[in-house]
Specification:
The structure holds two protein chains of two kinds. By secondary structure, chain A is an alpha+beta fold. Helix content of chain A is about 35%, strand content about 20%. Chain A has a domain of about 230 residues. Chain A contains 20 helices and 24 strands. In chain A, the strands form four sheets. A seven-stranded antiparallel β-sheet of chain A has the order 2-1-5-4-3-6-7, sandwiched between helices. In chain A, strands 8, 9, 10, 11, 22, 23 and 24 form a seven-stranded mixed β-sheet that branches. Chain A has a five-stranded antiparallel β-sheet with strand order 14-15-20-17-18, with helices on one face. The longest helix of chain A has 29 residues. In chain B, a hairpin with a 4-residue loop joins strand 2 and strand 3. The chains are: A alpha+beta, B mainly beta.
Chain lengths: ~750, ~120
């Protein structure tokens, strides 16, 4: 046999005998729309009246919004109740053409991947196929999702035997059988610790779930009833949308629906390009540093270069941190794109339709096996810990284009707070049922300052402008988690500036009436701020997890109400409960069981500030002081305002003089650029700081120390040590030293 | 603002005729618009605890709401003339400063000569 012939035989054999269909790079690495097909062209040629298209578009948009409301009302998962979902319509080729106005817009640019997988692999597979009434679902982020706690459900819509589109919904369902309850295990050290790994698959036919599959899924999670209920609510929403599509077909014809879906994508891309073309051409750069993996503190570099040319934007993340093979903070490239789309859909052009085409003129450059483009071998349950900072890197870069742009749909804005400061929980509730999920408090992120006004306090999550934080009383009806202080704004912890970031609230939680109850937290930013200000505005500060163990506050409350304090600052600094253990930690807490009445305290973060603090209106500083949002220290030493401590009355002349003195001081302290750089820049990252990513040269990646590097185009994944082993080693060294000292 | 200038940030504008960065507060000539504007500013390294005070007692706790100064420093950039803080960066000690804005000046001039790109920004 000749070499070529032999090769083709082997290739054919391999093609015919695929042993495993993993995530398809061809599908997963492209966020572009499918080419316009002949069928779509024919439909668009026949149905081209703009007014008619607008009518059909509104009809379908209303259907998406209606289905969103259905899932939000019917869903039992906390994520569903508070808006962590979208519902939508995909074209016959799998592109998301329309989505609900509310909810988590990250989904808008990554839900097409599983639909395209279904089309490519299952449509013509005799063992699967796509037929009317089929129900598909998936959750594995490696096939297109934010993380595995989100579950999608999609049904095909046929008309006279022809596949017209898909309808469906994606919801943050929470519990998924991972190594920790609640669906977002920061303890995951491999993809196999992350619970259910549903590649796109068929779970039902004739609009009914298969009981055998449902039973398998329910047996795979800690909340079997929630699994069933979540799937049913998504199915009914998808079916309602199918009815609405059929209504549109009946009223306008099938070509009208096909044409409208495709035309919506075409128009959206065209408009996005038009808007991009009004930005100045050039390059904007940002460097951000995530300060941990949720298991340990370390510096994870996010290097971002935004290159805008004509009507295209290239976002270059090369030189960012390598992937962590045994940590959950890696992101799949598609998930990163979804999060970045959020910037444009929520913060830059919120008036554009919610669909995949908004991101079409935007391209990404990443290093393979970086934390921002991880391999399928790396866990990604906490991808937010790298894609949120990546989002912020883009968000604080965009204003440098947008400020002088010819078209603006929104305000120029600083960095929104970008971490999910909330409690995940797991255990037995007051009704004796095993539960595991997440509190919607994460939705109370502080808003960023804008060019013309302050950021709102605890207003909305970075990923969903219309989500809610839920009602504490309703939460307490379902789980034994109580908040001694549910939502009290934190003093002195926001981003200062000419306009300041909105404050975040303190959450002081405890538990009662449970035989077994544990907490988890998943946020970074305890040593290095996670979001930033712009144009001279400061970042917010850092946020720790605080605990008071060895106390039952319910017992204390019986006879010693005077001991109670209602801020983290007072509880931790005054230590009112004798014999209790007070401690602080980074906000990566793996499942930790607590006793009734022990306190776990976290603080929702603030948005970044905008502009120079010395330009803040003194009266605005006074108002914040009187509202106890800032201390006299901040009034005096940050804003350089002179005011009366009792009345808040501003001494205008003294303030002007004080600010002038501060400006003069800056001019005295500041060094010319070149002189400063000479004394500042170092060849390598600092000793003693575990640093991951490039330093001076983006092609050289540091892997934790200055002596451990790899090339950016051939990244060697990082394996982290078990933090407990690290601690044991440290304690053993201390013990040995103490023994040696005792011996003399 | 000079006759043919465009505001790029709250504090920076480019004089398109002279191709120079200017301070929008005092008009100070910072430098060539084809070079990084930061090279014309004063730079100061600040301990982050001066801005983000430890809310919890640092003698009692490792994490205090303040950034860790051995991990994070604030680099502030001031106008040499009026002392306005035009920008800042939060960086690990010794990390190279970021050349954050590099615009295509020729394209910018072309766009504004054609009357495009007029901003509705404040100021």
């Amino acid at each position: 046999m000749g070499g070529d012939k032999e090769k083709s035989v082997i290739e054919k054999f391999l093609e015919d005998n695929v042993l495993f269909l993993g995530p398809d790079p061809e599908i997963m690495e492209s966020h572009k729309m499918a080419p316009i097909s002949e069928r779509e062209e024919k439909a668009m040629a026949g149905f081209s009246n703009a007014d008619q298209i607008n009518l059909v578009r509104h009809k379908l948009q209303t259907a998406c919004n209606e289905s969103f409301d259905m899932v939000e009302q019917m869903g039992a998962a906390p994520g569903a109740k508070w808006g962590d979902l979208i519902s939508g319509v995909w074209t016959m080729h799998g592109d998301l053409a329309m989505a609900s106005m509310g909810g988590v817009l990250i989904f808008s640019v990554l839900t097409q991947h599983p639909v395209k997988f279904i089309l490519k692999y299952w449509k013509d597979d005799p063992t699967v196929g796509i037929r009317p009434g089929d129900i598909f679902m998936h959750n594995d982020a490696r096939y297109g999702n934010i993380h595995n706690t989100d579950q999608s459900l999609i049904i095909p819509v046929f008309h006279e035997g022809e596949l017209i589109c898909f309808t469906g919904a994606i919801v943050h369902e929470g519990e998924n059988g991972a190594c920790e309850p609640g669906g977002m295990p920061s303890a995951a050290e491999s993809p196999f610790d992350e619970g259910l790994k549903m590649s796109p698959f068929k779970v039902g036919e004739n609009y009914e779930f298969r009981r055998d599959i449902m039973t398998f899924l329910q047996n795979s999670v800690r909340e079997p009833k929630l699994q069933l209920e979540g799937m049913k609510s998504k199915l009914f929403a998808a079916m309602r949308m199918e009815v609405r599509v059929r209504d549109a077909i009946a009223e306008y014809g099938v070509d009208a629906v096909v044409a409208t879906l495709r035309k919506t994508l075409v128009d959206t891309e065209q408009e996005t390009r038009r808007r991009l073309s009004t930005w100045p051409d050039g390059t904007v750069r940002t460097n951000l540093f995530a300060d941990g993996t949720l298991r340990e503190n370390c510096l994870i570099k996010i290097r971002c270069e935004l290159e805008k040319r004509g009507d295209e934007l290239i976002i270059d993340f090369r030189g960012s941190s390598p992937e962590f093979l045994n940590r959950a903070n890696n992101t799949v490239l598609a998930s990163l794109k979804g999060m970045l789309a959020q910037e444009f859909l929520s913060f830059v052009w919120p008036d554009l339709p919610r669909n995949q085409a908004v991101f079409a003129p935007i391209s990404l450059r990443t290093d393979r096996r970086s934390a921002l483009h991880c391999s399928p071998d790396a866990p990604n349950a906490q991808s937010m810990m790298t894609f949120f900072p990546s989002f912020t890197a883009v968000q604080i870069g965009v204003p440098k284009f947008l400020y002088s742009a010819g078209h603006r749909a929104t305000d120029v804005i600083a960095g929104w707070y970008n971490m999910i400061v909330t409690f995940l929980y797991g255990g037995v509730n007051q009704y004796g049922e095993l539960v595991g999920n997440v509190c919607a408090d994460l939705n109370g992120m502080g808003g960023a300052a804008r060019w013309n006004r302050d950021g709102e306090h605890s207003i909305a999550p970075i990923f969903a402008p219309m989500a809610d934080i839920g009602e504490q009383e309703l939460i307490e009806e379902e789980v034994p988690l109580m908040k001694i202080v549910p939502h009290k704004l934190m003093r002195d912890a926001n981003g200062y500036g000419k306009f300041r970031g909105g404050h975040g609230y303190q959450q002081i939680a405890t538990m009662k009436d449970s035989s077994m109850w544990g907490y988890m937290c998943c946020s970074i930013g305890s040593k290095f701020p996670s979001t930033m200000g712009i144009f001279g505005g400061y970042a917010p500060g850092c946020y720790p997890l605080c605990k008071v163990k060895g106390v039952n506050v319910f017992e204390e409350m019986k006879d010693h109400r005077d001991l109670l304090r209602f801020t983290v600052e007072e509880i931790m600094n005054e230590q009112p409960f004798k014999g209790a253990k007070y401690s602080t930690h980074h906000m990566g807490l793996q499942l930790e069981f607590a006793q009734p009445g022990e306190l776990y305290m976290i603080t929702q973060g603030s948005g970044g500030g905008y502009g120079d603090v010395l330009e803040r209106e003194p009266e605005a500083v006074s108002r914040e002081y009187l509202d106890d949002l800032i201390s006299m220290n901040t009034v005096t030493n940050i804003y350089h305002v002179v005011l009366d401590a009792e009345s808040g009355a501003v001494d205008v002349a003294a303030t002007t003089a004080k600010r002038e003195a501060e400006r003069a001081k800056r001019k005295k302290l500041g060094k010319p650029y070149k002189e400063f750089v000479k004394g500042w820049e170092t060849e390598h990252p600092p000793e003693g700081v575990p640093y991951y990513g490039s330093w001076k040269d983006r092609s050289l990646i540091y892997r934790g120390s200055k002596d451990d590097t790899c090339p950016a185009d051939n990244i060697v994944a990082v394996m982290m040590r078990d933090p407990k082993d690290v601690r044991i080693e440290k304690l053993e060294a201390e013990l040995a030293a103490a023994r040696a000292q005792a011996k003399g | 603002m000079a006759k043919h200038s465009v505001a790029i940030t709250e504090y920076l504008e480019i004089d398109l005729d002279a191709e120079r960065w200017h301070c929008r507060r005092c008009g100070h000539d910072i430098g060539s618009a084809r070079s990084p504007y930061k090279e014309g500013l004063l730079v100061y390294e600040r301990d982050p605890r001066e801005i983000h005070r430890p809310i919890l007692d640092p003698d009692k706790y490792e994490f205090t709401y303040a950034p860790d100064p051995s991990w994070c420093r604030i680099i502030e950039f001031y106008c040499p003339s009026c002392g306005t803080m035009m920008e800042n960066e939060y960086l690990p000690p010794g990390h190279p400063l970021t050349n954050d804005i590099e615009l295509d000046i020729d394209k910018l001039k072309q766009r504004h000569a054609q009357g495009e790109g007029k901003s509705d920004a404040a100021g």
